[in-house]
């Protein structure tokens, strides 16, 4: 089983800094922040009035108006990112009847941390204002978090393993990790995987405001997300989707696919500590890193770059720094680390998909995207977080960390393909 190698052959992005991979990557490298005042509803009464809204998204490029009305926005984003990933991988959108791919060996794990919150909120208003008889028959299939996987499977005719995972902000990372193992254990040859989210709605914003988890730099949204900076005051919600195509190596070679990187490790642990706070010693995250390294057959010093979870909250950034020190020892100070959330904000369930794609691009392009808005050093966050300016570096191994409410820790590792 473990002789089956897993490679990355495609990826697609919808985000607040670009609705395709080239634009997304260009924004990351150049530190162009996608955060702004919320425009999709009146947020003037909220403690936080800023977010990373997707801009210029044209759903008609992907589906008919009739089909779009039956999908929550998070699912529309997931499909759009999946279409780009399939095209990037050279896979047909009609898998049934393909001479290159067995449709029943193509699986899907594209998940959401929250799911169709927009649909749920809108339909709750209908229920209270117009009564139960006016609720949409599509409420449930639009709302449930697994439905992105279901719709993507139906769209392409992918008949392999099909499921959705919900681990809050680790959702996208775990979806990629579990897809890795699905291929390793020979249950699929190709997996369409990642995460999607569209929770910038009044109920979602109000909930995170009530937790006091969000930045309140409402007059300066471009500098509100400041991972590892001493003056950070909370994260900034964003939305979008990051979808990756993982493929068994020999399968990819047979059809002449471009191979961007190899996926070699995955770790998943629980803090067993608190519903929202990370473990104060970074214990769970450190164990997830160590697990991923063990599966990859790597030593800590083999890792060149870490895309940190780096949310811009006081506790996450401090405890994640401790986790990196615990897992990597002295090598932690030699690592290139960055959090791309300064540019993108926090994509919640989409974060793991977007940031895993960033890791692969780092390997391909040999550039470390910066942690922007870093102005005041925090002695609790004293690693090399690539402040403000991208760095050229020969990255052969890149590791992505994502952590979620509930104590969920996910780590995936990619390396240069040879």
List keywords for this structure.
418 residues; alpha+beta; Peroxisomal Thiolase, Chain A, domain 1; 9-stranded mixed β-sheet; two-stranded antiparallel sheet; 13 helices; 13 strands
Task: Give a concise summary.
By secondary structure, the chain is an alpha+beta fold. The chain has 13 helices and 13 strands. It has a 9-stranded mixed sheet, sandwiched between helices. A two-stranded antiparallel ribbon has the order 2-3. A two-stranded antiparallel ribbon has the order 10-11.
Q: How many distinct domains?
A: 2
Amount of helix: 25-40%
CATH class of the largest domain: Alpha Beta
CATH fold category name of the largest domain = Peroxisomal Thiolase, Chain A, domain 1
- Order of strands in the sheet with the most strands? 4-5-6-1-7-13-12-8-9
Q: Examine the secondary-structure arrangement and name the CATH architecture of the largest domain.
A: 3-Layer(aba) Sandwich
Low-confidence stretches: none
Written as H for each helix and E for each strand, in order along the chain, the element string is EHEEHHEHHHHEHEHEHEHEHHEEEE
Please describe the topology of this protein.
Elements: E1 6-14, H1 21-30, E2 36-37, E3 50-51, H2 65-69, H3 73-89, E4 106-111, H4 117-130, H5 139-143, H6 147-156, H7 171-184, E5 190-197, H8 202-210, E6 240-248, H9 249-254, E7 261-270, H10 283-296, E8 305-307, H11 314-328, E9 336-338, H12 341-344, H13 351-365, E10 367-368, E11 391-392, E12 397-404, E13 408-415
Parallel strand pairs: 4-5, 8-9, 8-12
Antiparallel strand pairs: 1-6, 1-7, 2-3, 5-6, 7-13, 10-11, 12-13
